[in-house]
Amino acid sequence: QDIPNRKSQSISEFANTPEKVSDYIFPLLHFAAEHVPRAKHKETPLYILCTAGMRILPERSLALLIFVFTSRRQYLKIWSLISPLYAWIGINFVLGRFEHTDDEDEAVVEVHIPGSENKEAIIRKRTVGILDMGGVSTQIAYEVPKTVSFASSQQEEVAKNLLAEFNLGCDAHQTEHVYRVYVATFLGFGGNAARQRYENSVFSSTVLKNGLLGRQTGMTSDSPYLDPCLPVDAQDEIHQNGQIMYLRGTGDFNLCRELIQPFMNKTNETQTSLNGVYQPAVHFQNSEFYGFSEFYYSTEDVLRMGGDYNAAKFIKAAKDYCATKWPVLRERFDRGLYASHADLHRLKYQCFKSAWVYEVFHSGFSFPASYSNLKTALQVYDKEVQWTLGAILYRTRFLPLRDIQQENFRGSHSHWRSFSFVYNHYLFFVCFLIVLLSILLYLLRLRRIHRRMLRNSSSPSLWMEEGLPPQKISAAL
User: Which parts of the sequence bind ATP (predicted)?
Assistant: First the structure.
């Protein structure tokens, strides 16, 4: 933030010109260097974290980009692709689900710590799961509080790469902060990638049918392919192999869902989700999920239903939208009836993306239509929840905050850096002297009081020895 003249850009855009990455990254490094003390530059790690956009690059382009980065080894410490685990950590941190308190109003779960099967289970706050759908990939992450069983040894081997076990405490021995989280990323299942797969399928199947039946469906604007995933009378084009295929929407939401279901690549095996990937069972009765990115955009931008998700209401709104004629949708758009950041691209593909989000959630991840604990969101507590927050927390989870606080204090009192050991001993010595002096003063005071009492008690006998009568003694006392 606050970097002048910066525009939104991704590293993957330099796939064909990797030599220009330096021009992009150096201003960012310069900005960071101004906020990190110069003495700390060499020991400050730099994390390069990439989204799924990097994964779909050709191998040669990706290799060149990695080479450019790693050749600047004096800057680079870590290069990795981001994990939905970061988003999971970020949202649960913001919601305060890592705080182990005895609040009776909070939903809790019974957690069996990995490797501590002989110990009693821990009861702690229920964490939330996350669903995140971008343009290229879809991600899911949620805590698996109990030990899971596997249908086969092969499934167990696959699950090892999908179940992340980590400690968010400041000490590896604090097992109450151990979490077991299922983390999976599905490339090609993002909203835009799914639409591209759908169009590829429509194009190839239509060309094949045209060849077999001698038709020209979709090859001219006068005989377009009737696409149930576009709003009624909306027009679109597919460009492939130098050919153009013309589409016209029919807005049939149910038929659209039927056509895209095969793209889930579901299998008949138990405990599997999208693409036949292993997925541990979700305790639907005691769980909570947040849906970000496309899950939010598809419910809010046009349908204005962001927040608490209701499958029946969502289907009705999506059906009505798909069945509305394109000129009517355009007129509503011009009147500003949709979200301020909704554009014509969103309007055209809202019907498809509504169906896609619904199928991924209910058919792919097998959430029942009655599930009522999903919230779609862009912000939480008026703040946008970014995976970058989770990445920072994860990468620095074994760095105690008290050390950071002490370092900050010493940074504002630089003369403490070299002499803190001596000052600590001076402080102890001064405290010792104060205590010792207090004890001596107290003993001296007791001694004076004791002498005064002795002097007072000896006065009558002295007076008797001097021959004073008893009446005078009484008066003196």
Answer: 135-139
Measure the CA–CA gap between 176 and 167, rounded to whole angstroms: 9
Q: Do 355 and 231 meet the contact criterion of CB atoms below 8 Å apart?
A: no
For the chain, count helices (H), then strands (E): 15, 16
DSSP code per residue over 344-392: HHHHHHHHHHHHHHHHIIIIIS---TT---EEE-SEETTEE--HHHHHH
> What amino acid occupies position 37?
P
Question: DSSP code of 272?
Answer: B
**Using CA atoms, how far apart are residues 393 and 325, in angstroms rounded to an integer?**
48
Q: Give 21-25 contacts, CB < 8 A, sequence gap 24+.
A: 21/65, 21/68, 21/69, 22/68, 22/72, 25/69
The band of 41, judged by pLDDT with boundaries at 50, 70 and 90, is confident
The mean-pLDDT minimum among 123-137, 296-310, 401-415 falls in 401-415
Bind-site residues = 135-139
Does the pLDDT at position 46 exceed 90?
A: no
Distances (CA, A) of 110 to 107, 143, 182, 204: 11, 11, 17, 51
The SS3 call for residue 193 is helix
Residue numbers in the known binding site for ATP are 135-139
Task: Report whether pLDDT(408) > 70.
Answer: no
Q: What does the angle CA 42 – CA 45 – CA 48 come to, to the nearest 5 degrees?
A: 130
DSSP codes, 284-305: GGG--EEEEEHHHHHHHTTT--
Q: Can you give the pLDDT at residue 309?
A: 97
Identify which of 138, 146, 188, 186 has the alpha carbon closest to the alpha carbon of residue 163.
Answer: 146
Q: Tell me, what DSSP letter sits at residue 445?
A: H
Render 6-24 in DSSP notation, one character per residue: -----GGGGSS-GGGHHHH
Report d(CA 446, CA 453) in Å as an integer.
11
pTM comes to 0.73
Structural domains of the chain in order of their starting residue, each with its CATH number: 11-81 (3.30.420.40), 89-192+254-395 (3.30.420.150)
Residue 320, C-beta contacts closer than 8 angstroms, at least 6 positions apart:
none
pLDDT tens digits, residue range 103-132?
Answer: 777 888 888 876 666 677 888 899 999 999
